[in-house]
Amino acid sequence: EWKMNMYILFFCFMVVALATVLTIVEFFWEVECDKRALYRTRVEFSHSIGGFLNDFFSFIVLFNYVIPISLYVTVEAVKFISSYFIKWDLEMYHAESDTPAKANTSDLNEELGQIEYVFSDKTGTLTENELVFRKCSIEGVKYAANDGVLVEESSQIAVDLANQNVKDFLIAMSLCHSVFTTENQGNLTYEASSPDEKALVEAAAQYGIKFMFSSRNSRKIRVEGNLDRYEFLHILPFDNTRKRMSIILK
Length: 250
Prior knowledge:
Blueprint: H1 2-32, H2 49-62, H3 70-88, H4 109-112, H5 123-127, E1 135-138, E2 141-146, E3 149-152, H6 164-175, E4 180-184, E5 187-191, H7 195-206, E6 209-214, E7 218-223, E8 226-236, E9 246-249
Antiparallel strand pairs: 1-2, 2-3, 4-5, 6-7, 7-8, 8-9
Helix pairs in contact: 1-2, 6-7
């Protein structure tokens, strides 16, 4: 678009220059050569400023076709059509959600072709905000998720809530967060602003500690079939100094 604007300015300058030169040439032709033009009627010519401007703008009108105003219309039409090619591009189609690419504006299409590198420091950009619990370390022992079961990584032996360290860890996972629950046709689902917290709460529920309810004053979790209630006292939000969040319960 910047180049196109430069071309338009160049053509405008060229038209003005041509009109100026031809107006001057016409002036001298009327003074010196008109007597030999037998086909012209003898009239008195006006060489005033008004006559000069009249001739100048007459040449501007004659040469206006040099300025390609239609170029803007053509470029906008090409941008509009290219936005449909973006929509039809199968490589940008997301099959899981049945969502094609959508061009909300056609002004940036030509700039997309100039992109060579994409830098991102956002976790969600690379993971698509689909986080899954994989591993953890409890009291120096490493545990990993294996087909829906929490196993000790070194021996691959499954662990359950009989291990008090694991139980306390999962209780902390199911309580220390800002997740809230929604119920849809009897099914409990979790909603969270952070996909990290949601993944941890879902993992705790999968391994036996299910977060059930949260209010301003309390939180409830289900542990081995029993509903435990914790009184909510205070929350310390995440900050760059502590690099963690904490919650105080009773």
